[in-house]
Hints:
This protein is α/β, with parallel strands linked by helices. The chain is built from 10 helices and 14 strands.
Amino acid sequence: MKKHKKIIVWGAKYDTGHTQAYTFGAFVKAAKYLNEEVYWLDDRDNVDATFFDDSLIITENQIGTRNPVSKNLPLRKSSTYMIHCLGNKNMPDRPEPSYYLNRVGRLIDFRFSLTGKGWSDQLWEYTYEPEKYTCISDNVSYLEKGAEYDNFYSMWATDLMPNEIDFEDRHTPWIEPKHIFFTGTIRDDNYDQFEPFIRACKERDVKFYYNNVWQNVLTTEQIKKASLEAFLAPDIRPTSHVNSGYIPCRVFKTISYGQLATTNSKGIYDFFNHEIVFHEDPYQMFFIAFDMRNDAKTKDLILNQMKIVKDKHTHANRVRDIIAACEM
């Protein structure tokens, strides 16, 4: 890095139980993999504010200003702040961009790259037009310069580094009796998509095991092991994600582990070159996945996607893109 002396990832350490720890931990791991100087800090580290000078600082808006152990993020005029969920809807529990402006050297909103045309939720409302942005890596990361702050568009990635992706893992046999492993969040806004899939599982006498990440934080090693031992480790998107074309970290991870990826999102299916399981109806998706999992040729499709993820979709790729955006 030329403009920054170090990377600081702020907040959401594993012991906080915050799910952002999965991403922040992967950023730290990737920065070390790239031989960048990196620190993962929060209020408990009692680091002097001057330590944050000349730094590239990565955090999430609420984590850096509202979380009990990380709400006192130092703001320094010599540093760049890349803040996920900065938002543009003025949520009452999150500070507006104006909170940071004129208090930091540069402010960047970390937004999602999409396969659709825009994003709309309680935090953001934006049209996604990558052809108008500066391309950092094709179909993944882009920078949009703004009058007051910039927008960085990118995706999550697998938590494995390139050297940890083992193509032979795709041959790992599932454990009998067959079962499904899902780690994530099932709640009111996505249960309507899970219910048909779970119903299909019951029809084939396949157990559905759910790990709630807010109640039980698993390590990368535990998730990989559980995913490979399962018959399937599905990704099921809520309607809002399907409509926007959001690409989740779970699919990148599942592929990198050597497991067959499944989705109810056409955008995700297109992104992965139609080499994963797709049906917009999660009930039908289960049966397509069941047949593909029993087809020996599926291992070749998994290998194709593992190679792509290893080359383009690890957090090492994302950290390189973040550094490139912040150096522009």
